[in-house]
């Protein structure tokens, strides 16, 4: 039986997919995973700019109908970013509450779940000030993965180590991965996926 792998999240998952084509995977880590798993059915329902509350708002229409065997949720950087560019903060408590509501749905209970930890590779002095806010959201993702027995892709530490002194090589703006960054994300996800 063909496994259906569904990916939901923000622009890092969306990665320029054609939203008018349900088969479009974008040009990021999801497409790279699909190339490695030709036997799987891959569905990408990422949407640029999404925060956890946005996933909640579209969960019933975009995620539930996909009936995933494996559901990957990758969200959090916009929950931090909007605090600093629009003065529209999401507390760690609100972020956690949104994720808990998503995880307590029938579609999740019927799937293997993989949570991807949000990352930031500061390329400006301002972005260094975002880390504390993001750390709280990373802790939420890590804690929920442990609590529900989900797979966890620990991106922040992996990409920080890979970037070394040149974070822009992995994420030119600190957030959106380069082709090299997308490859690292795909490889980290595949390691978790294949470990089960």
Describe it for me?
It is built from ten helices and five strands. Helix 2 packs across helix 10 (179-194), helix 3 (52-63) runs parallel beside helix 5 (92-103) and helix 5 runs parallel beside helix 8 (131-148). The chain has one domain (4-194): SGNH hydrolase (Rossmann fold). It is α/β, with parallel strands linked by helices and 196 residues long.
Order of helices and strands: EHHEHEHHHEHHEHH
Query: Order of strands across the widest beta sheet?
Result: 2-1-3-4-5
In CATH terms, what is the fold-level topology? Answer: Rossmann fold
Which stretches are poorly predicted, pLDDT < 50 over at least 5 residues?
A: none
Strand content: 5-15%
Short description:
This protein is 49% helix and 12% strand.
Write the layout of secondary structure elements.
Layout (H helix, E strand, L loop, with lengths): L3 E6 L1 H4 L14 H8 L4 E4 L7 H12 L6 E5 L2 H9 L6 H12 L2 H4 L2 E5 L8 H4 L2 H18 L2 E3 L1 H9 L15 H16 L2
Helix pairs in contact: 2-10, 3-5, 5-8
